[in-house]
C-alpha cells in the first residue's frame, strides 16, 4: 500500500511539471493543492515517513515569514493573500519534490518530462513564427525595428515570459547530452536544444538572449574551461549567420534612446522611489497590490504592472527581509552546487551544471524583467531548485557509498 502511495505522489509531480506551461495558474494551483493534500496525508498516516532536511530549510523559513508579514501589512490584503497562498503552494511543492524523489532514475525522469514539455512549447512557438502570429505594437519599437513582424510567445502570452522559461531549461536539456551513451540519443538532445534556442531567438527578448548568453558561459566554465574557446568562436561567427532582425535587436541592448530601454529606466527609478517608503514591511504580493500603490510614484505616462526587475520587485513586495532571504537562498544553493561539481560525481555533476547554469541565466534576466511575474515560470524555477537540492543529496549519498566500499576493501 505504501508503494502505491509513493507512485501516486510521483505521478502527481510528473503531471504537474509537464502541464505547467499549458494550463492556467488557477488549474496549476489546484493541482498543487491536490498533490500537497496527498503528501500531507501520507506524512500523517505513514509512521515510517521521515521529512528530508536540506541546507535551504532555515533560509526558506525566513523567506516564508517575510511573505506572511508583508501580507499582513499589505495595501490590498485580499489580493496579496491570494498570491501568498499560491506561493506557499509552490514552496510546498518544492518540499514535496525533495521528499518524494529518492533515486537518480526518478530524478532524470522528471528532467526528461520537463524537457519534453519545453520541446512542445518551443515547436508551438516556431509554428507561430512561420504562421506570422499577431504581435501587438507595444511589443516592438517600429521606428527602430521595422523588420520585426512577429514575436512568438507560445503558451505564455508574452515573449519575455517565454524567454524566461526557455533560459531555465535549455542548459538542463544540454546536460542530457552527457547522460545518454547512444549517439542517436545524443543527436536527439542536440536537435531538441537547437529547437528551443531557435524559439528563444524568435521571442526577440533581449533580456532572455542575455540570460542565455550568461547561462552558456557559466555552463562552459563549469563543465570544462576549454569550452570557453568554442563558445567564443561561436559568438564571433553568429553575426555572419544571424538574420538582420535578430542582430539589430541584439545590438540595440543598452541604447537608452530606444523606447523599451528608456521606458525601463523610468520604471526602475519610480519603483526604487516606491521601495524607499516600503522597504521594511513591503506592500504585499501581487499585481493588484502593486498597481494600487505604483501610480503614486510613477513618472508621467509610465504605468506598469511590475518593476521590470525581480530584485526591486521583491524589495517592494516583501521588504528587506524578503530580499535578503531570497539572496541567501540563491547563495546557499550555489555554494552546495559548486561543492558537488568539485567532487566530480560523474553521474550527476553534468545535470547539476545544467541546473546551475539555467538558474544563473534566469536570475541574470531578472535584472531587466520581473521573472516571477508569471507564476507558471516561478513554479518551474522552484522545481529546478528542488532538482538541484535532490541532485546534491544523491551525489553525497553516492560518494559516501563509494568511500564506505573503499574502507571495507582496505579492511
From TrEMBL:
Q: Which UniProt keywords apply?
A: Ligase, Membrane, Transmembrane, Transmembrane helix
Cellular component GO terms, alphabetical? membrane
Membrane-topology annotation of the record:
Multi-pass membrane protein
- Database matches in InterPro entries: O-antigen_ligase-rel_domated, WaaL-like
Which Pfam family, giving just one, matches this sequence?
Wzy_C
Q: Which domain of life is it from?
A: Bacteria
O-antigen ligase-related domain spans which residues?
Answer: 192-327
Q: What is its main location?
A: membrane
From the Swiss-Prot or TrEMBL record, what is one GO molecular function term?
ligase activity
Compartments, record wording: Membrane
User: Which residue windows are transmembrane per the record?
Assistant: 12-34, 79-97, 109-127, 162-180, 187-204, 210-242, 310-335, 347-367, 373-390
User: Cross-referenced PANTHER family, in alphabetical order?
Assistant: LIPOPOLYSACCHARIDE BIOSYNTHESIS PROTEIN PA4999-RELATED, TEICHURONIC ACID BIOSYNTHESIS PROTEIN TUAE
- Protein's name in the database: O-antigen ligase
Amino acid at each position: 500500500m505504501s508503494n502505491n502511495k509513493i507512485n501516486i505522489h510521483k505521478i502527481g509531480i510528473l503531471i504537474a511539471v509537464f502541464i505547467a506551461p499549458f494550463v492556467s495558474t488557477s488549474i496549476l494551483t489546484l493541482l498543487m493543492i491536490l498533490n500537497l493534500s496527498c503528501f500531507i496525508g501520507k506524512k500523517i498516516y505513514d509512521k515510517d515517513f521521515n521529512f528530508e532536511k536540506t541546507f535551504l530549510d532555515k533560509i526558506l523559513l525566513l523567506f516564508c515569514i517575510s511573505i506572511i508579514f508583508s501580507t499582513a501589512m499589505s495595501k490590498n490584503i485580499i489580493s496579496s493573500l491570494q498570491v501568498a497562498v499560491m506561493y506557499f503552494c509552490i514552496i510546498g511543492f518544492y518540499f514535496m519534490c525533495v521528499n518524494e524523489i529518492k533515486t537518480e532514475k526518478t530524478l532524470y525522469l522528471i528532467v526528461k518530462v520537463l524537457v519534453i514539455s519545453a520541446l512542445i512549447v518551443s515547436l508551438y512557438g516556431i509554428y507561430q513564427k512561420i504562421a506570422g502570429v499577431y504581435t501587438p505594437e507595444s511589443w516592438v519599437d517600429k521606428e527602430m525595428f521595422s523588420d520585426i513582424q512577429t514575436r512568438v510567445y507560445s503558451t505564455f502570452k508574452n515573449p519575455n515570459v517565454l524567454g524566461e522559461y526557455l533560459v531555465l531549461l535549455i542548459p538542463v536539456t544540454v546536460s542530457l547530452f552527457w547522460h545518454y551513451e547512444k549517439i542517436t540519443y545524443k543527436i536527439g538532445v542536440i536537435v531538441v536544444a537547437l529547437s528551443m534556442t531557435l524559439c528563444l531567438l524568435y521571442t526577440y527578448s533581449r533580456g532572455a538572449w542575455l540570460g542565455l548568453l550568461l547561462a552558456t558561459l557559466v555552463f562552459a566554465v563549469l563543465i570544462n574551461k576549454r569550452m570557453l574557446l568554442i563558445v567564443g568562436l561561436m559568438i564571433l561567427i553568429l553575426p555572419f549567420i544571424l538574420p538582420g532582425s535578430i542582430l539589430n535587436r541584439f545590438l540595440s541592448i543598452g541604447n537608452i534612446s530606444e523606447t523599451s530601454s528608456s521606458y525601463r529606466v523610468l520604471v526602475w527609478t519610480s519603483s526604487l522611489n516606491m521601495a524607499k517608503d516600503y522597504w521594511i514591511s513591503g506592500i504585499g504580493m501581487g499585481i493588484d497590490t502593486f498597481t494600487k500603490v505604483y501610480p503614486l510614484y510613477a513618472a508621467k505616462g509610465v504605468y506598469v504592472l511590475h518593476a521590470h526587475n525581480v530584485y526591486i520587485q521583491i524589495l517592494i513586495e516583501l521588504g528587506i527581509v524578503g530580499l535578503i532571504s531570497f539572496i541567501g537562498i540563491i547563495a546557499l544553493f550555489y555554494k552546495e552546487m559548486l561543492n558537488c561539481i568539485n567532487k566530480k560525481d560523474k553521474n550527476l555533476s553534468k545535470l547539476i551544471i545544467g541546473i546551475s547554469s539555467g538558474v544563473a541565466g534566469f536570475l541574470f534576466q531578472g535584472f531587466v524583467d520581473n521573472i516571477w511575474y508569471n507564476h507558471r515560470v516561478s513554479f518551474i524555477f522552484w522545481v529546478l531548485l528542488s532538482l538541484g537540492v535532490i541532485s546534491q543529496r544523491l551525489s553525497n549519498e553516492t560518494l559516501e557509498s563509494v568511500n564506505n566500499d573503499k574502507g571495507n576493501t582496505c579492511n
